[in-house]
Amino acid sequence: MRHEPVLLEEAVQALAVQPGGRYVDATVGSGGHAAAILENSAPGGQLLGIDADPGAITAAGESLKDYRDSLRLVCDHFSNLKDICMRYDFLPVHGILFDLGLSSMQLDDRERGFSFQVDAPLDMRRHPDQEITAADIINRYSEAELESILREYGEEPSSRRIAHRVVAARPLNTTIELANLVETAVGPGRGHIHPATRTFQALRIAVNRELEQLEQALKQAVEILGFEGRLVVISYHSLEDRIVKRFMQREAVDCICPPQVLDCVCQHQATLRMLSRKVSKPSPFEVKRNPRSRSARLRAAERIAVAEESFADYLNILAGNGSRVWRKPVLIEKLRQTFLALEVTNLRM
Ligand SMILES: C[S@@+](CC[C@H](N)C(=O)[O-])C[C@H]1O[C@@H](n2cnc3c(N)ncnc32)[C@H](O)[C@@H]1O
Fold first, then answer.
1. Residue closest to 27 by CA, chosen among 1, 2, 9, 3
2. What is the pLDDT confidence band of residue 192, given thresholds at 50, 70 and 90?
3. What is the pTM of this model?
4. N or C: which terminus of the chain has fewer CB atoms within 10 Å of its end residue's CB?
5. Pocket flag, ligand 1, residue 21 (CB < 6 Å)
6. Distance separating alpha carbons of residues 131 and 248, to the nearest angstrom
7. Is 115-208 in CATH node 1.10.150.170?
8. Is the CB of 99 under 6 A from ligand 1?
């Protein structure tokens, strides 16, 4: 099935895509969002597309061939975001998009094992060079480790029972074997949700270290965004969305000391402004047209200028050089204003 980009208009709008802008699509997939970004950033726009799945990079290359001159595609994990942008001299950027999770191509692939609806080996790796497969976890991890993965990454209430059954039934080699085992362990499930959904989510997260990857990438995203650049994240389950929400909330405040600390000791400085407190969700019309969009949540924030840290470094250099400026508060304040104004100009793209 062709991958239908989710919350497409909302994402382009939240990125504030402008002609001549420089954008990173950190999860380029088959290029649906990327095409819209390239379309809206013409003339002169550029896009760096990243995906850990070599098949996605091939698909994006094909679907975006008309934009070849404005495009660079890189097969890598987005936890290497900053290095990738530095390697390709792609800094600072006007916007970064993360559209997390899986593409329809990956779900439908008969070799990958991401879906319990397609009979396939228990693999679930995004890139074939990754060492651990879902089969390794299912067949080699201890019952306690398995239970903890299902509980933490799947929020599975029956984690203990499923882990116990898996260990008793080893070896399990295919998606359907595992899905059937989970169904017999916990019953048929309610509504449209298959009882193995949480187990498959948990395994995929563990195999690809998805939550760590996301945390690392968000930190780097802030570092490569220029002043007023936009960070837009579409997530598909509560664990991812919680990480994104907490990250943006934390980066939007100047002090993160616990409430009982009256005088700030953390020296934390806000780097982002949240564009909206609420998440954007797909409309009922989009969910009807594309049921895979139903759990999508979009959050967006804008980079603000932070130059205080480098100003502190600058003062230390002056002090180290024997300058007396740093002892005079009035002069320091004047210097600070000039310094911050200059830094903001440098960040502005
Ligand atoms: C929902 S799809 C993106 C679809 C894309 N926006 C489109 O319109 O075609 C998510 C993509 O992110 C990729 N991905 C997920 N985690 C990744 C990571 N840590 N590093 C790089 N790519 C990742 C997946 O391989 C997949 O192709």
1. 3
2. confident
3. 0.88
4. N
5. no
6. 32
7. yes
8. yes
